[in-house]
Amino acid sequence: MTLPARPSPARRRPRAGVAALVMALPTAAAVLTACGGHGTLVVGVREGRPGLAERSASGVYEGFEIEVAGYVARRLGYRDDQVSYVTAPASPPADLTMGVPVPRDGAGTVAGPYLVSGQDVLAPAGDLSVRGLRDLSQKRVCTAAPGPLVDRFGAAWQRAFLITSTVEDCARMLFSRRVSAVTGDAAVLAGLAAASPGAFRVLGRPFTRESQGIAVTGDDLRRRVEDALRAMFDDGSWRRAVIRHLGSLAAKYPSPPALRPHVGPRAAP
């Protein structure tokens, strides 16, 4: 299995998939002044997440989150060549932030979710000894997010069996059988499985639930981004992006998630 190198920040090509995660917006007004044909929209992305957001060997961003970011940008009035993708966290901050948890209470300025996923397990395709989370109690496991596993199995298990590394490194270790399983975001694991046909399988039994949205600053911009997401859901673009990028996981997303109602700041007494 060959995983792409990480060249310097790049700008999205027309129709290329791109994954974006941003730290914050300067101001809603500053971003919207560029709508209609002027300026650049900067989108921060977490790279190295196959299926969601990664950079190809040619430097082009690809993935489900990149398609979502590109669609939203176009609805805001930007052409593809006016969208610049940077690795998050970015300095100065980016304008939109992809992959940010959506607060359960709807507070804050995170639009979405555009995807509801969770931590799942990736195992070798031919190894049927791993059927669920409990089967990892005596297995060597690699993960980039150890918290849920440590909560489940404890610190002693962590010291004996757990390796913490990047998703790419974990995939390499699983490919060479140095570990028995990898845990991570189900969408990312599906991307890894799709990139190496016949090598891996995703169990399809998430043990956490995570709603991913787009962080912005200002309620007006949040409403505009939510309108863009709603349009993507309604015209079929969201579903087509799921099928293109999430592989076997696409069957679990027959319809888009419900946008979470926004709760604005309370007025001072």
Automatic annotation (TrEMBL):
Any GO BP: amino acid transport
Q: Identify the residues that the record assigns to the Solute-binding protein family 3/N-terminal domain, covering every copy.
A: 40-249
Would you indicate the residue range of the signal peptide? 1-29
Q: Which Gene3D superfamilies match?
A: Periplasmic binding protein-like II (3.40.190.10)
Q: What is the name attached to this protein's record?
A: Glutamate transport system substrate-binding protein
**Entry keywords, A to Z:** Signal, Transport
Organism equals Sphaerisporangium siamense
Question: One GO cellular component from the entry?
Answer: extracellular region
> What family is this protein classified in?
Belongs to the bacterial solute-binding protein 3 family.
